[in-house]
Structure of DUF2178 domain-containing protein:
Amino acid sequence: MKTSHVWLVAGALAIGGLVLQGWGNAEADHPFEDPLGFLGMLLVSLPLALALNITVRRRRDASGESSPDSVEFRAAQQARSQAYGDAVILGAVLFLVLAIVADTLAALTAMAFMTLAVAAFWVRYRLALRAFGA
């Protein structure tokens, strides 16, 4: 499917989502009181986000940025790894702040986030090692 067709379908779905939002209940306190508005919101945001993702991925493939030998790929991989390290440190700071300032549930949520982030890295790392035969 051509990129222009992807955007045409995403635009049509977004317009349909706007129409559904117009038919929805504007006085609703939360999205589950207004199923038409909630569905409309999803029809606006999801297709446009997917179309943008498809477009960026196709442009990256066409320019060669996605090949592992390119400078862009290596820079992006280095930036992702540094951002992951920053996220773990910021998660630890968030946990400490929430443990001091907020209630126990908020601190436990932050600790669960940190634990899941580190666990996700190690699971992916072990799977990648296994895929490389190490």
Remarks:
- The two ends are 38 Å apart (CA to CA).
